[in-house]
């Protein structure tokens, strides 16, 4: 296999129906573009899902942080650059850079991924795949200047805000609730009036457990040190109404 560059660069378009009332790309769609870039990058280099599925494995997103100075506007062409900056047995970290056609930087992202066995849903050894091929593509010199995800701490007094059911459109190729769907549902905790006064500066999400179609998701929110900084906990419940934490989030507005 021909050795490709360590950094991948992929072109996207801010399609108008993927933009909100302010004419800017929805954060959820930007997240999807980042995950697509990660998929293209890993597949092109031989350790993506196209290969992993043949050996009964897949990638799952563990953590994601996105920090944007601004969002692309409708019809803007932009690029997502992505690269892996570390790979261990259980986890690998991948960075993103969002750039306009003229070289303007919109923002950055940082993510952590795990490889799992499709039958057991347990972690698999990343370094055992194709003789540790991923280590040949580690890039540590290219800058991604945002902070890594923090450990979000929620108190027992967090306010329950909303509960929703999950359906067909929430489920992704791995058979569980899609990573970006959690983000979209979480950002719906604030209404249009709020977004007319504030924009998302940064958000972080850490995935704790899988959920599936039919699970009910519950959202708990609490304010941090300022009136524009929030923590959110998402849980799932089954038919016995037992709640299990699915993920924790932090959203900072400006």
List its salient traits.
4 helices, ten-stranded antiparallel β-sheet, mainly beta, about 250 residues, about 15% helix
Description of the structure:
The protein has 254 residues and is mainly β. Helices cover 15% and strands 37% of the residues. It has helices at residues 27-44, 49-52, 179-187, 192-197, and strands at residues 8-13, 57-68, 77-87, 91-100, 105-117, 159-165, 200-207, 216-223, 229-237, 243-253. Strands 1-3-4-5-2-7-10-9-8-6 form a ten-stranded antiparallel sheet, with helices on one face. A hairpin with a 4-residue loop joins strand 4 and strand 5. Helix 1 (27-44) packs antiparallel against helix 3 (179-187). The radius of gyration is 18 Å and the shape is globular. 33% of the residues are buried. The mean pLDDT is 96.
Model regions low in confidence, pLDDT < 50 over at least 5 residues: none
For the biggest β-sheet, the strand order reads 1-3-4-5-2-7-10-9-8-6
The major sheet is characterized as: 10 strands, antiparallel
Shape: globular
The residue fraction in helices comes out at: 10-25%
Q: Using only CA atoms, what is the Rg?
A: 18 Å
The ordered string of helix (H) and strand (E) elements is EHHEEEEEHHEEEE
* C-alpha termini separation: 46 Å
Q: How many helices in DSSP terms?
A: 4
Mean of residue pLDDT values:
96
Q: Quick one: how many beta strands?
A: 10
Determine the strand fraction and express it as a percent band: 35-45%
Backbone structural class: mainly beta
Domain Acyl-ACP thioesterase N-terminal hotdog: 18-127
Domain Acyl-ACP thioesterase-like C-terminal: 163-247
Keywords: Fatty acid biosynthesis, Fatty acid metabolism, Hydrolase, Lipid biosynthesis, Lipid metabolism
Protein name: Acyl-[acyl-carrier-protein] thioesterase
